[in-house]
Amino acid sequence: MSTHVVGDGDDAITYDIQGYLDRVTTERPALFLFGAPMDASGFRQLAEQFPDRAVVTYDPRGAGRNPTGTADITTEQHVDDIHRVIAALGTGPVDAFGTSGGAVNLLAAASAHPQDYRLIVAHEPPSAPLLGDGDEVLAIVDDMKCCYAAQGQGAAMARFIALVMFSGPVPAGYLERPAPDPAMFGLPVEDDGSRTDPLFRNMPAIISHRMDVDALRALGDRLTLAAGTESGETIAARAARAIAAAIGTPAADFPSHHTGFQDQPGHPGDPVAFGARLHELVDRP
Length: 285
Description:
Layout lengths: L1 E5 L6 E6 L12 E4 L9 H4 L7 E4 L16 H15 L4 E6 L1 H12 L4 E7 L10 H18 L1 H13 L32 H4 L3 H4 L4 H6 L4 E6 L6 H13 L4 E3 L16 H12 L3
Parallel strand pairs: 3-4, 3-5, 5-6, 6-7, 7-8
Antiparallel strand pairs: 1-2, 2-4
């Protein structure tokens, strides 16, 4: 594995290459795996399922080994960062798998720079605008941002976990419920004063991002929307199906749940089966 940086200052983006770019071919382009705000370390188990590929992972802006800050991060910044990494590879179009916020950023990037991609798999993009309860979701995100500013990471993260675990459309009275206790999730109760958490810096941009449906439809069978078989009616899975319906294609089933490409203590996934399913989608001429 080799590590590289594109850009400098606040625009420095760190990325890793597993394998050899000189082995990239038209039929086996580099495979770019990413999320947001999850950094490259979260994709090690999935990358191991592709020993036949040059695999690229990266740390999104504000996360991992990149510079930190407190300002909100826009989808447009992520799109530019992803485009710069692909250009720096110098190997032509890539196959790309984006998950969670990374899937939103991938869909935005593929809309803006379709020439950067051969095949695209967007796994559980938590984009609210196409959901029937999108206004309610965005109101909760606004409340979460206010909580983060006033009370810090623990209290806001508890609200985030409760939201992403919620199954089904969010009811209008959701915010009238008692706020979840951070201690329930093993989160800090006290505010440490920091405001650099990339998750909250990515809100509301990622969740409020409105897809360019026409541009996505124009990608045809190069694009696959995907949701986990264990994800049920959670927001990200519902959004994947809603975007797929808007562009007129079925969403593909993937094994496990939102982070099923990882097998973690206390939160098991199935990276082998997950990788096999991704192979089915990207191992084609």
